[in-house]
Specification:
The chain is mostly helical and 39 residues long. It has two helices and no strands. The protein has one domain.
Length: 39
């Protein structure tokens, strides 16, 4: 999970999505979903 959080700027950039400015439940869900498969 920590590795993805460190690299998440690249994810949002590659997906052409705006990086979240505030932590909300969608952002937490993105982290948890990525942690399932990252590394």
């Amino acid at each position: 999970m920590a590795s993805w959080v460190e690299d998440m700027d690249g994810y949002y950039l590659n997906q052409k999505l705006p990086a979240p400015e505030n932590v909300n439940w969608t952002f937490i869900a993105d982290i948890l979903m990525a942690a399932r498969v990252y590394e």
